[in-house]
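seq as requested:
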Amino acid sequence: MSELGMTQTVPFRRSRTATASPAPLLPLSVSGLRLETGGAVLLDGVELSLARPQPNPVPEESPIRDMPVATSDELVRRYGLLEDRLVAAGRLREDTGGLDGIDADRLATNFIRIALHDEYTPVEGGAFVARESASRLRRWAAPVEVSVNFGASVAPAQQGADRAEAAEVVRIIREASGHPVRMAEKGGNFSVFVVSEDERLHLRPELRRIVPGITDPVLESMLDILPSTFCLVVAFSAPEAPQTYLRAVAIIRAEHPPRLRRGCFHEELAQGMGLANDSREASPSIFNDDEEFTRLTDQDRLMLKMLYDRRLHPGMDVAEATAPVHEIARELLPPPMAAAPQAPETAPVEVAAAPAPVPQE
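struct tokens:
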């Protein structure tokens, strides 16, 4: 549902945001200055999650969301204008938001929105309608190994910066979730590709190699994207355990300037761990469609911890998860202890001065 009050039907091949599970959900909504996408769906044993809302760069130019496929140089220019505009508006913040105003109930509610809902619902004919629907909890069971791969267009210095960024996000996810997550030089079960527009279109053989059996519709959803998709992640599972991730693939545009680039690393790696949805209500959070943050916030880190708590397990629906989610949230954010009552104030007691000694003659 957009701010214009319209429900939009989005063809699967034009999905903009996705996360992985037994079927890919491709959400697309236009809201204010940006094209927003998020959610998860199941298709051919895959859950697809493409991310990053897309604001318009400058009013006098064709909005990014309306651009046809553009050259890499043009994308560099447009994304640079967009980042400047967002920063000037106070968005793309690089702090972690704090926890002011977040209590256990709000944390639990936001977790259920992000981890147990999809922003788009599949409808007859292979399309998706922008209507939030309940889903099931999805996460990894095996250790996660993240490898970062670059197209030839990415300069060595930028490759070093991107690897450092990915390593920092991996550290945050590992410490927050308690799940084993590490960087891998090669291979790995979570592959990140930083590629230009042209390079992305040539990823088809590599994606078929690392994801045997990947279907043409899923490949199309990953490769046939417009500039309004900043980055995406797709997670794959086996038919016998559709809510347990076995492999994930993220694609990040090499044309991005620093803050949009950082936001893609933080959001896609975290969504690829199982926090698949976006919600306007979840704030402060990188999973909010307002583009306020470029980093995982303090609340996001608590949600990662909740996602991998042993009291939760893949496949739980909202009804099954609600009670343990609230229990975990109360442990993470216990209510403030009531201050001990103060003793009533008493009037000061005046003590008569001792009589002055009488001088002896």
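The first strand starts at residue 9 and ends at 11.
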